[in-house]
Automatic annotation (TrEMBL):
It holds the Pfam family TIM. It comes from Syntrophobacter fumaroxidans (strain DSM 10017 / MPOB). This is Triosephosphate isomerase. Keywords: Cytoplasm, Gluconeogenesis, Glycolysis, Isomerase. It is found in: Cytoplasm. Pathway: Carbohydrate degradation; glycolysis; D-glyceraldehyde 3-phosphate from glycerone phosphate: step 1/1; Carbohydrate biosynthesis; gluconeogenesis. GO terms for cellular component: cytosol. The active site is at H97, E169. GO terms for molecular function: triose-phosphate isomerase activity. Its EC number is 5.3.1.1. Belongs to the triosephosphate isomerase family. Substrate binds at N11, W12, K13, G175, S215, G236, G237. Homodimer. It comes from the Bacteria.
Length: 254
């Protein structure tokens, strides 16, 4: 079976100016160098995308946007289309992050449209799914995640289903300092892969990368990445400092 290449993604959210972003990327590339056995994806704020792309020269580094609009163009003040993101050098786009769902009110249907729009522009979506604390405590994790995945993949071609990256981010572990245990992460990742096999096919599911996101830190990265169905990480706060993010990129494989 083809090996799944680990993907380590940094989501900077609303942090870093253009100058800070450029300085970070330059230092990270000096410290880490080229990466050949994993991908490093950086999602800076919109204002820094073009500048980051210009200095992102080391092999193995990719540019992502934190969001996109579902329409290609139009009277959508303040929004950015997939075509615009592709134009500045993005290869990936994060879609359906928990903050987009729970702070900005994006629905499963909106996220499905964004996934389709991203593929239409030649971008690879990183689809975020996950449950809030009340849903986990009421044993609804699998139901919520299943609904989110099913909705997002509706209408995808087999090739698109293969390229899609899924990120499981338990909402209760984002920015709270709480982290799902490696066993908890593995349990949900294995469920997602099983359901993806039923929705698409087993070959596609075995090739699809499923990331974990939720208070990832240097001291838990190795145990998370040791899980058989954890193929990478979506990193928030720990990606804002070169030292901590460097250690996460350099996770130790089992």
């Amino acid at each position: 079976m083809e090996k799944r290449i680990p993907l380590i993604a940094a989501n900077w959210k609303m942090h870093k100016t253009v100058g800070e972003s450029v300085a970070f990327i330059e230092e990270l590339q000096r410290e880490v160098g080229a990466v050949t056995d994993r991908e490093v994806v950086i999602a800076p704020p919109f204002t820094a995308l073009a500048a980051v792309r210009r200095v992102m020269t080391a092999p193995g580094y990719r540019l992502a946007s934190q969001n996109c609009h579902q329409e290609a163009k139009g009277a959508f003040t303040g929004e950015v289309s997939g075509g615009m993101l592709k134009d500045v050098g993005c290869e990936y786009v994060i879609v359906g992050h928990s903050e987009r769902r729970h702070v900005f009110g994006e629905t499963n249907e909106t996220i499905r449209l964004k996934v389709a729009a991203a593929f239409a522009c030649g971008l690879v979506p990183i689809l975020c799914v996950g449950e809030v604390l009340a849903e986990r405590e009421s044993n609804r994790t699998f139901k919520v995640v299943d609904e989110q995945v099913q909705s997002a993949v509706l209408g995808l071609t087999p090739q698109q289903a293969r390229e899609l990256v899924i990120a499981y981010e338990p909402v209760w572990a984002i920015g709270t300092g709480k982290t799902a245990t490696p066993d908890q992460a593995q349990e949900v990742h294995a469920f997602i892969r099983e359901r993806y096999a039923a929705l698409c096919d087993k070959t596609v599911a075995n090739l699809t990368r499923i990331l974990y996101g939720g208070s990832v830190k240097p001291d838990n990265v190795d145990s998370l990445m040791a899980q058989p169905d954890v193929d990478g990480l979506l990193v928030g706060g720990a990606s804002l400092e070169v030292g901590s993010f460097k250690r996460i990129i350099r996770f130790v494989s089992p």
